[in-house]
Design the sequence.
């Protein structure tokens, strides 16, 4: 089977649990490190799936991060060809933009562990087959996407309604992080641990303490999502 293309916007946001799951089942990952200057392929052909990870930048920060401009036509080709795809956080927002939907800057902040709830359509969607209607995920975002025209809205949270959508049959956006390992969460909060702000330090310490327990409690759910994506990928 062709490799899975993994688009990394920054070194600290890799495929985590999702990458480990796919590799354990024999899939090769072709990882492009955009922050390090590695180039994207012109077309998504030659890959069994594409995964676009998160990052601290926004979709409109193209002047500071020119690789975002280069990623957009690749995602438009993914949509047109209905190539299996998961966009996570920034990757989901990039997919929304490629689907001609707006991404709203600083419109809804979630940082930490939050429950999300599947919509009726989400409960019936192949990606979430066998998944509980509500489960806990890690979130770290200030921007949020609107649902593209023609897309299916799949999940919501109490604070930020647009948490997941599907375009076509196999192209998915997830605002939340099901791939995050406890080590990744600790890394993401490492600067806050050194902060002079006691509130930021306390939050970081709490999130780092919570991460192993939350990931363990929800790991079967995350793995089911990964298994479902693998089934979609294999078609």
Sequence:
């Amino acid at each position: 089977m062709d490799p899975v293309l993994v688009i990394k916007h920054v070194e600290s946001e890799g495929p985590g649990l999702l990458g480990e799951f796919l590799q354990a089942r024999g899939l090769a990952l072709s990882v492009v490190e955009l922050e390090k200057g590695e180039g994207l392929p012109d077309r998504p052909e030659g890959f069994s799936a594409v995964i676009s990870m998160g990052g601290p930048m926004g979709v409109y920060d193209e002047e500071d991060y020119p690789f975002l401009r280069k990623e957009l036509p690749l995602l438009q080709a993914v949509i047109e060809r209905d190539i299996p795809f998961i966009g996570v956080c920034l990757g989901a927002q990039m997919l929304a933009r490629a689907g001609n939907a707006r991404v709203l800057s600083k419109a809804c902040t979630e940082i930490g562990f939050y429950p999300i709830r599947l919509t009726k359509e989400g409960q019936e969607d192949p990606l979430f087959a066998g998944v509980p209607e509500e489960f806990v995920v890690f979130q770290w975002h200030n921007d949020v996407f609107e649902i593209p025209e023609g897309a299916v809205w799949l999940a919501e949270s109490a604070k930020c309604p647009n948490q997941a959508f599907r375009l076509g049959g196999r192209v998915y956006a997830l605002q939340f992080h099901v791939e995050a390992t406890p080590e990744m969460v600790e890394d993401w909060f490492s600067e806050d641990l050194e902060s002079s702000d006691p509130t930021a330090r306390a939050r970081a310490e709490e999130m780092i303490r919570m991460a192993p327990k939350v990931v363990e409690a929800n790991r079967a759910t995350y793995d089911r999502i990964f298994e479902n994506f693998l089934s979609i990928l294999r078609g």
Notes: The chain has seven helices and eleven strands. The first strand starts at residue 4 and ends at 8. Residues 189 and 204 are 5 Å apart (CA to CA). The domain at 4-234 is CATH 3.40.50.880 (Rossmann fold).
